[in-house]
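Q: Hi! First time doing this. I have a protein sequence and I read that you can turn it into a structure. Is that right? Here it is:
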Amino acid sequence: MQVVKLRRPRQTSCTECIRRKQKCQPGNGKSCYYCSRRHPPVLCKIRDAGSSGSSGSSGAREERAQKSTESTTTSMTVGKRSHPYCEPQSFGSYLSAAQCANISPADPSQENIELLHSFQQYVAPMFSSVDGRTAPDNFLNEWTPWILQSPLMPEISILLSLSIKCQLQGLDTPKCPNALAMRGNIYSLLGKFLTHNIERRIEQTIHAVLHLIGLESFWGESNVQLSHVKAIQNLLRMGGGIEQLTDLKLKKLLMITDFHWACSYERELLFHQSLPADFRALPIPNPYPENFDSPLLDFSSRFVDRKKIFGLEQEVAEMLDLVRSLTNSVLSSTSNKRVPESDSYSFQLMALEALNKLEAFPSLSDLLHPGEEDLIYETCRMAACAYSFSILTKTPFSKGLFADSEFRQQFYSNLWRVSLARWQEIPGIFFWLTLIACPGSGETYPGVRLKAKMTATSIYIMISDFDLAIGASRAFWTVQRWIARREAEGTEFIISGEELVVTPYEGGR
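A: Yes, that's right. Below is the predicted 3D structure, encoded as structure tokens:
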């Protein structure tokens, strides 16, 4: 009797679509249609006929053994950084444990587990590093668990991951039904939280609202952000001020957020009202990370003397030293509440001299194929011209050279054509570049992206050295307020017997 072997039908669906009970649609690339749109990315694999049988087959056993080995020997990598959570499945119990304090736990659904895993692996590094990948170890080990203990952060972290997922799929986040529903649920939970003994939960409430500011900055709604900022201001007043907070991480994040908001929108500080921040000495740590040096801080050594450490050209180092000289002059004047008129006149002369030197540097905007160092040169030259121009003419940065759309777009082009990995090597300089451009960036996508990167850069610096981050932020804000006061005074300055006339920026000589 002849034995007829039955051939199993050829499997055409990938294992991920089978697990999700979806109809697999083969794509043009290596992944099917659904797997190519998943976030975080998954392995799209079609199991061969030998391993599609019973669970006791050798192929299935080998595959399970391989997965078991990988899950026990491989830790989740966040931009070359290891972390104890390795697979989305391991976040199931972790998500359930991350309770919304006195509200409700986040729904431990499969989608939420994957989105929380995405937040830990992809989103968190975006908010804590310049390149969006290499988050500092202490951020992952200390700050991320603290963030997730916020009363609303499990939900907010999931919504942030969902928002980024929508962007990757080409969807408008504010119009995404799931994102809108989750956002409404967050505000509903916040309302319930605020109805129960808010006086006893001031720090918890501030923690929750602070993360809402970050959420709304991603959505690009500054009016909603302002309402959250004022809410925190009222909560701090109820609690006796920012100095009375017992949570050190919360206090640091509040101080940085206050300066971010004030610098981005050229406003007064809201959380530091009881502190004479305008006249306090700027903290300069010693020793400090050399690559974090910024033209906003008064370090003892010059950029031209350490240009090899930063990998900068001679001209770029000279520009940064000019900016530092101007900044130090303004900061030294604000240390005294009464500034003589002659000092203001000398600032004008110093700014005019600096602007003339900066405009003497040749423009590289016409190069067809500029290298990365050429782009850094041109970006720093444009920012330095805008900086000295505003000090010279007493014009806010939002109304200065960055008010011109052509100038602004050229600056964006130069800034983003340099790799973020290169900017992360010189975060102090990059932080100054984002600060100078933020006030005139508006609420468009380029502006929202710039503000988000400015925030991430300052957090990256803050995690390494808080004094450096707060010192650079305070220095820039102090220069902004100095310009605002001079603009309000409306004093005309005379140079060489003639009224000062500044010609429009023409891209250098």
